[in-house]
Design brief:
This protein is α/β, with parallel strands linked by helices. It is built from 11 helices and 11 strands. The chain has 2 domains: 2-170 and 247-321, 3-Layer(aba) Sandwich (Rossmann fold), CATH 3.40.50.1820; 172-245, no CATH class. A 9-stranded mixed sheet has the order 1-9-8-7-6-4-5-3-2. A two-stranded antiparallel ribbon has the order 10-11. β10 (299-300) and β11 form a beta hairpin. α8 packs across α9.
């Protein structure tokens, strides 16, 4: 089902770049209380988790799993905002750092990518074992949203009551092209520089040997990074093969949990034409589109000194609607 969003941007933030960047500035001093946990993986690597509170202390509280975006972490403004909003609802937030995103490199050459669902499957099984009677929800931002769509399509019987996919690059090839145009190149440089920094650390540790520091330094686009780093490290033939196999847009019909997909038509990270052309023939999916919102923005309100973060309210309303059902 497709529907129009009721989101109305703040009058002072109708520009898509302002929507995208404002929260990072407005929430730069936001704090969050967390509990850290590290779990060991079967392949010898590890996952760093962040909880808003010890889950064993409140066995009646639902748990909401959060998947962050490309090179994100618990320090990302949108992650802190959502985790705090989850706690304010009386629920427990759990953020899974993708491999290498918690502030320390993971142990293998491979880290994470837009189609890497193995760790979500592993953590889900762990949650199932540890919290059999809990109500569970799951949400993913940007890259994490695409990972979530892929995971939901693969799991025939997910334990989550509902899911939300937020501003996700569901068609990776067109999104790589979009972020390499105009002002969007500013975002691309920011992301690529972070990717190169984390990769360079692994090159120095000799975990990655197929590329050297000079070759890495020469990369300027997300496509080139995926061509020269992501694809060869993760068993893809090239960037195009990676985009084809990892894009969530091709597997949405297999999702069997109530899933809300949120998209802003002015998102500077995504190719709106491809996203809007999605043919979603799945009663479990609600595709909700707003004219404004930017990338993971959706800031509303009439007072610039008291912005309203509509995204958190909409996402958690959807998840809450499916608890106790």
């Amino acid at each position: 089902m497709s529907k129009s969003s009721n989101f109305k941007p703040a009058w002072w933030l109708k520009n898509r770049h302002l929507q995208t960047m404002a929260a990072k500035v407005l929430r730069r001093n936001e704090t969050i209380h967390t509990i850290q946990e590290t779990i060991e993986l079967e392949d010898g690597d590890f996952l760093d988790l962040v909880w808003t509170e010890a889950p064993e202390a409140s066995p009646e509280k639902p748990i909401v799993l959060v998947l962050h975006g490309l090179e994100g972490s618990i320090d990302s403004h949108y992650a802190k905002g959502m985790m705090n909003a989850i706690a304010e609802r009386g629920w427990i937030g759990l953020l899974m750092h993708f491999r290498g995103c918690s502030g320390r490199p993971n142990r293998h050459a491979q880290s994470y990518h837009s189609g890497a669902t193995e760790d979500v499957h592993f953590l889900t099984q762990l949650l199932k074992q540890r919290f059999q009677q809990r109500q569970l929800g799951i949400l993913g931002f940007s890259l994490g949203g695409n990972v979530l769509a892929k995971y939901l399509a693969e799991d025939d019987n997910p334990i989550y009551q509902s899911a939300v996919v937020i501003c996700a690059p569901l068609h990776l090839a067109s999104c790589a092209q979009q972020i390499n145009k105009g002002f969007s190149k500013v975002y691309q440089k920011y992301l690529v520089d972070m990717l190169k920094d984390s990769t360079s650390e692994k090159v120095s540790m000799q975990l990655i040997q197929h590329i050297d520091h000079e070759e890495l330094k020469a990369i300027t686009s997300l496509y080139d990074f995926d061509e020269k780093v992501t694809a060869p490290l993760n068993g893809f033939r090239d960037a195009n093969d990676y985009y084809e196999k990892a894009s969530g847009i091709y597997v949405l019909e297999h999702i069997n949990r109530p899933t809300l997909i949120l998209h802003a038509q002015d998102d500077p990270f995504l190719c709106n034409d491809h996203i809007m052309a999605m043919d979603i023939n799945n009663p479990d999916i609600t595709f909700e589109v707003s004219q404004y919102g930017g990338h993971v923005g959706f800031i509303a309100g009439t007072n610039p000194f008291k912005p309203m973060y509509w995204l958190e309210e909409r996402v958690l309303d959807h998840i809450g609607d499916h608890f106790n059902q």
